[in-house]
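ok, trying the design again with the full structure, not the truncated one.
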């Protein structure tokens, strides 16, 4: 199988899309079917024939939109990570201080991490990554790495505004997202919980924000 670590999932998916007819509805139908096939059979066992059946299209139509299984998996990662994630991270582009925006961002981020779609994809990647490490790299680049970079960019703007004193905004972004998840991320990954109440998420995020800001406010 070709190694897709040299490009992000977005680049692979876009390249495949460029060669396909301009029918986003059909492409979305195929991606949804591929997601079901990968989750049901696993990446290795999910053949293109199975994907075609799950998507309700012919195998020929499938290859018009996606040249191989690697490109198809990249598109699934893109759909699950990037598109819903935009609704979480886009709010950081708006006006507001760190103290104003981080609580709402933290709550949305944790809800996204605990969501069924995110959980299922992380489970699939974890199960297959030992044999196919390129799947893990594809997922990491399209999801966690992109999210960390977007939060780091927000923190950099807050540093430039004099609100925060951070030398390494990428590390700080990773720290904040870890604080917000606390035990919930691992509990969800281990299927200990299926979700958490908004009250519990809010409680954890509120304290994460306090700890984060106390640690990174300028000391005058």
């Amino acid at each position: 199988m070709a190694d897709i670590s040299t490009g992000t999932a977005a680049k692979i998916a876009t390249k495949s899309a460029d060669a396909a007819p301009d029918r986003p509805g059909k492409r979305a139908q195929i991606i949804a079917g591929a997601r079901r096939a990968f989750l049901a059979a696993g990446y290795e066992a999910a053949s293109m024939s199975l994907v075609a059946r799950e998507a309700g299209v012919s195998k020929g139509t499938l290859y018009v939109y996606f040249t191989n299984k690697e490109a198809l998996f990249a598109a699934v990662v893109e759909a699950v990570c990037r598109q819903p994630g935009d609704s979480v991270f886009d709010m950081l582009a708006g006006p507001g201080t760190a103290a104003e925006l981080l609580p709402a961002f933290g709550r949305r981020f944790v809800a996204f991490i605990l969501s069924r779609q995110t959980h299922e994809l992380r489970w699939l990647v974890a199960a297959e990554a030992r044999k196919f490490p390129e799947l893990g790299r594809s997922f990491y680049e399209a999801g966690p790495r992109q999210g960390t970079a977007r939060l780091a960019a927000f923190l950099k703007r807050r540093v430039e505004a004099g609100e925060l004193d951070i030398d390494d905004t990428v590390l700080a972004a990773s720290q904040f997202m870890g604080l917000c998840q606390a035990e919930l991320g691992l509990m969800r990954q281990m299927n200990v919980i299926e979700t958490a109440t908004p009250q519990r998420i809010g409680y954890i995020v509120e304290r994460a924000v306090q700890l984060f800001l106390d640690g990174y406010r300028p000391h005058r």
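Keeping the full-length input from now on. The chain has two domains: 23-67, 74-216.
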